[in-house]
Specification:
The protein has ten helices and no strands. The chain is mainly alpha-helical and about 220 residues long. It has one domain. It is elongated and about 65 Å long. About 20% of the residues are buried.
């Protein structure tokens, strides 16, 4: 029997997941001053392990970042950045919008890296299970849904940590091939019965208040 692992976060795992979701939606909607505040928050919560995880996420997302830059730089009309290139040059407003979107995406990746280093896999499973518990009233078993997400996150983490150089065909085969269950994932899990306390409610209240303030900046 595998016992539930303790979270390195002071709050409940479900609260940590909710805070990350709230951070993600806030980063996607605030402007420049709000992004500066969120950047300071991320830098304050970043650890050495989180930084390594963040660098790994950015390296895996480099083509997405490049496409995001090109699409926004050339799809938004405005004054050309390099007049010598004529219509082939990116617009100033397009580049500004592209850099803003990339900034937001980097903040989301950084916050995800912090979440993944602060919560163990079992803590994540406990958090998802707690969040999905109300679905039981709709006939949806929360334990099955939580385990599916837990397994998906585990396989995704293994895929990101795989340092082998694979070509496009091999990557597609890995994506569509059902991964084998290892000995660790075959072990039964015992989830923690930790309940919400005042720290969780204070964290959520502070996050909501900060989000409202940032949107009004």
């Amino acid at each position: 029997m595998k016992q539930a692992e303790n979270s390195r976060s002071p709050c409940h795992p479900a609260t940590a997941i909710v805070l990350w979701l709230f951070f993600m939606t806030t980063a996607s909607s605030v402007g420049g001053s709000g992004l500066i505040v969120l950047t300071i928050v991320v830098l304050g919560g970043m650890t050495n392990g989180g930084l390594r995880q963040f660098v790994r996420y950015v390296r895996r997302s480099r083509w997405l970042l490049l496409v995001l830059l090109l699409v926004h730089a050339y799809s938004i009309p405005g004054t050309r950045m390099f007049t010598g290139l004529g219509p082939l040059g990116p617009s100033q407003s397009g580049l500004y919008d592209a850099m803003t979107q990339i900034w937001r995406l980097l903040l989301i990746l950084a916050s995800l890296a912090i979440l993944m280093t602060q919560l163990t896999r079992t803590a994540l499973l406990s958090g998802f299970y707690r969040l999905f518990t109300p679905l039981r009233w709709l006939g949806v078993p929360p334990e099955r849904l939580a385990v599916r997400i837990w397994l998906t996150l585990g396989y995704a983490e293994d895929f990101l940590n795989d340092a082998r150089r694979l070509d496009f065909r091999q990557r597609m085969e890995r994506l569509f091939r059902l991964p084998a269950l290892d000995a660790e994932r075959m072990q039964p899990l015992v989830l923690s019965e930790k309940s919400f306390d005042w720290v969780d409610y204070m964290c959520i209240l502070a996050a909501v208040s900060a989000g409202i303030w940032l949107r009004n900046c």
